[in-house]
Amino acid sequence: MTIFDRPVFIVAPPGSGASLFFETLALAPGTVTLGGEGHSVFDSFPSLAPEQRGFDSNRLLAEDADPAVVRALVGLLRERVRDRYGQPPPPGAERLRLIEMTPRNALRVPFLAAAFPDARFVYVFRDPRQTISSAVEAWRARTVVTYPDLPGWDGVPWSLLLVPGWRGLRGLPLEEVVAGQWEITTRHLLDDLEALAPERWCVASYDDLVERPAEEIARLCHFLGLGWDHELAARTLTPPDPATATVVDRLLPKVQVQSERARDLFARRPRAVPPVAMPVPARAAENTESANARTADGGVPGSPLRSVHTESFPQILAQLGISLLASTYQSGRVFVLRAAGPTLNTHFRAFRSPMGIAVGPASLAIGTERHVWMYRNVPAVTRQLQPEGQHDACFLPCRAHVTGDIRLHEMAFAGEELWLVNTRFSSLCTLDAEHSFVPRWRPPFVTALAPDDRCHLNGLAVVDGQPRFVTALGRTDAGQGWRQDKARGGVLIDVPSGEVVADGLSMPHSPRWHNGQLWVLESGAGTLARVDLVTGRRETVVRLPGFTRGLACVGPLAFVGLSQVRETNTFGGIPLTESSEPRVCGVWIVHLETGGILGFVRFEEGVQEIFDVQVLPGLRFPEIGEPDSDLIAHAFVLPQAALAEVPLAT
After folding, report:
1. Concatenated DSSP letters for 139-157?
2. What is the DSSP letter of 237?
3. What is the pLDDT of residue 353?
4. Which of 270, 376, 476, 635 could form a disulfide with 332 if both were Cys (CB 3.0 to 4.6 A apart)?
């Protein structure tokens, strides 16, 4: 049986809400659980119990996974499977995926990773204040007492997991004991996860499960390679008692180091999606100069982020003297496509759910889940980069604007002013120093500014320094109303007049004004089209093997982003997902007049969707600094007059 292939372990400190993820993921088709939450199979294995180890702790390391122990453990798991399914198991049971969750597994990651080399881990993050408060109440209620007669412990009966160094907590008030339990657990858990290969684990959000359950579970199922066919309603844990939370507030400084570390990890950790290999479409291969595939960034098959490209792709970038930026929100990255001789260098940078990118003369903006990051090109910093002399630009963050979760989609500079598509509030907006955003325009059919995504406004085209065209998935005035006719309800709107230029579109995205013509992607049909402004008629230029989203035009060429969407509530019922043709993820180069495909880069591992594609004109090999990178720590931009006054170490 292959039930132990890629088992899933949900790990978190007690009180994090991990049980909600366990119960939900256990509903996914093809999964099996062999014990309820808090009653892991591993807890019943005698040689792993703290009682056999001097009551030291629940901690298990890689060296504990010796072959004899692993064989015996696998035998116990198989016995549990037989008890559940009978002998022999029913057809299909041999392909089930094991889902395991108990708070004690938060201290066992090295052991589990060694015993099951293909295991996947889901770390559930919840605000430490809420987590510790919930754990305090569990101790007080005495409903999860795990070691009622713990030798050497004379306080309230020990509850939840037994942490290393627990004896140092003797004599402390209950709240401090629980805070210490959380701090020790979190420290070991984060150390262990960060020692794993990045494709083996991801971060899940308790808040996202509560606020956006379907989206969060679908994302996790993508990462874990699980199917999903359930509708979800938001569920929550019982909020901690306010009095408990007040007491815990006084303890937070004692756990500040691990608390900030957990928050930082949650904020910057890319939320990866699983690798899916797809064949090269025959039409694309026939229309390229060469379909010989090269691996980007020197990667090898099986690496976490891997792409292949036609030889023509870097040649075209070099001939045009440009590089490309693209964003992928599910994988949590912005990447730079750069020609490096005959190969394509695919350079990834981590952001939290990046979507819209706007490029200015010497600056750029990157929109993420809750922020807009503003970047400035600082060419002098290229001297610090390796290989020496190769980079011709270095974009460094100069400020961040907190927008909140407005479902920010495309952005564009209109003159020197940055305009955002605020999808959640169905509006175009700008930014100032005092507000989350400044609403500037919304479609005439949207009657109120409300955070309910009435028409799924998503794309923006600037013409002559002014916002001119937008796309929306529906002409509706009810929250989420666009979903009712997403297959053919999309519209292209003229901003100054508010009039609909074209309708009946299938999930339109990325309107662009180029060479005196209006171009748009019909994502739901996988096409690039030219729009007649007088009649509103659209002429399909090319149909591509994916969900077309993200468009940048240079001369006679278009760079089109493709996503490998699956049939879900969002993407079900559109022409693309109803077709049996394979779908891929990458960036395709299309000749705007002929529709010929001149090259492509296709992502085979780690990336399944593209949101935005932008050109960096005149820059062949730029760098982008991540906000928390070492590069940012040692690169300073000072006024020219100050340089003579400030002694700088060399």
Report:
1. HHHTSSEEETT-TT--SSP
2. P
3. 92
4. 270
Measured between alpha carbons, how far is 459 from 456 in angstroms, rounded to an integer?
9
Residue 607 one-letter amino acid: V
Separation between Cα atoms, residue 46 and residue 61, nearest integer Å: 16
Q: DSSP letter at 414?
A: E
3-state secondary structure (DSSP) of residue 612: coil
pLDDT in tens, 228-259: 656 555 555 555 566 665 666 676 677 777 77
The dihedrals phi and psi of 149, each to the nearest 5 degrees, come to -125, 45
* Cα–Cα dist 129/638, whole Å: 39
Query: Confidence band (pLDDT; 50, 70, 90) for 4?
Result: low
The CA-based dihedral angle spanning residues 492, 586, 329, 215, taken in that order and rounded to the nearest 10 degrees: 80
The pTM score is: 0.57
Cβ atoms of residues 431 and 449 within 8 Å: no
Q: How far apart are CA 423 and CA 254, in angstroms?
A: 40
For residue 614, report the phi and psi dihedrals to the nearest 5 degrees.
-135, 150
Q: What angle do CA 199, 204, 208 make, to 5 degrees?
A: 145
Query: Each residue of 329-338: pLDDT tens digit?
Result: 988 999 999 9
Q: Which of 453, 434, 458, 433 is nearest to 374 (CA)?
A: 433
Of residues 143 and 351, the one with the higher pLDDT is: 351
The region, left, alpha or beta by phi > 0 then psi within -120 to 50, assigned to residue 628 is alpha
d(CA 464, CA 477): 30
The label of the residue with tokens 């402004």 reads 533
Distance CA 532, CA 518 (A): 7
More confident residue, 210 or 530: 530
| Structural domains of the chain, with CATH | 8-268 (3.40.50.300), 295-633 (2.120.10.30)
- Asked if 297 and 308 touch (Cβ cutoff 8 Å), the reply is no
**Distance between CA atoms of residues 157 and 211, nearest Å:** 35
List Cβ neighbours of 457 (8 Å cut-off, separation of 6 or more): 409, 421, 422, 423, 426, 427, 428, 442, 443, 470, 471, 472
Judged by average pLDDT, the poorest of 239-253, 309-323, 403-417, 497-511 is: 239-253
Alpha carbon of 489 to those of 245, 500, 507, 569: distances in Å? 48, 12, 7, 16
**Per mean pLDDT, which of 44-58, 262-276, 587-601 is the most reliable?**
587-601
Residues with Cβ within 8 Å of residue 582, at least 6 apart in sequence: 278, 279, 281, 545
| CA separation, residue 393 to residues 177, 205, 358, 385, 398 (Å) | 52, 36, 16, 10, 15
Q: How many CB atoms lie within 10 A of CB 522?
A: 25
Q: CA angle at residue 571 from 569 to 574, to 5 degrees?
A: 120
Three-state SS string over 535-579 comes to CCCEEEEEECCCEEEEEEEECCEEEEEEECCCCCCCCCCCHHHHC
Q: Which among 450, 438, 469, 367 has a CA at the least distance from the CA of 409?
A: 367
Query: End-to-end CA distance of the chain, in Å?
Result: 62
For residues 476 and 192, what is the distance between their CA atoms, to the nearest angstrom?
48
DSSP 239: P
Question: Coil, helix or strand for 331?
Answer: coil
Considering only CA atoms, give the Rg of the chain: 27
